[in-house]
Amino acid sequence: MNSLNRLNVLRTVACSTLLGVLSFVARPVFADQPTVAPLRALLVLGGCCHDYKAQQEILAQGIAERARVKVVIAYDSDRTTKHLNPVYENPEWAKGFDVVIHDECSSDVKDLAVIDRILGPHRHGLPAVVLHCGMHCYRSEGWPKAVTPWFEFTGLQSTRHDKQRPIAISFIAPDNPITQGFANWTTINEELYNNSSGHLLDSATALARGRQTVNEMKFDFVVVWTNNYRGTKVFATTLGHNNQTVADPRYLDLVTRGLLWSCGKLNDTYLKPITPK
Known about the structure:
Largest sheet: 9 strands, mixed
CATH class of the domain at 39-160 and 195-209 and 221-262: Alpha Beta
Number of strands: 9
CATH architecture of the domain at 39-160 and 195-209 and 221-262: 3-Layer(aba) Sandwich
Low-confidence stretches: 1-32
Helix content: 25-40%
Mean pLDDT: 89
């Protein structure tokens, strides 16, 4: 091989090597490749009046499909309002979790020591999501006129709902990262919880309102909001009685984004890419 041919060969090898290095460096990291450990969420649910047996799976699966979140379920099969979810019997019930989803229906659990045990981790910074009947829980002495411990935690108090009718949901904070880009929608026949205090606490911020007509009477209440509970982020919504609503992709999107926001993780690292169906 003469010197000219040898030079051409060396140039070819060098170019191939350089291209290989560049292609390795420039190789994209796709969004669906896990880069972080998933958040651990405890889903507490059970009690009166709802199909929690089905909704535990709807919520756990729906959230996991949308975000890097591992949902651990604490389901109480008791169908009354007086039974405490057994998970709370452990003083360290929240240990190892990044966020708690309160979806229980336990209005007649009123012992302040128990309520303090439930709220304790949140008072020390554990984020929370409160869904539907979670707003009707832990009605301790002074309810509904006083700012009871649970009311302070949720940021908005509710005492009742009327007959199930469609709820027209309108998002009123378009720049909020949780609801940014959400379009208004109308639910199936659903329960619209009232705002018994007449307003949010100063620590809370409304994100959406719900309007409903029952027997020609018109109701208009806040249905989605956030609360700053002693420095801890809480996302809350009174929506979500029926399985069809809980399984609605728009509802699951809302809850998932609220959960990530409460943890300070509402970003592309924890949100999973949307998979066309």
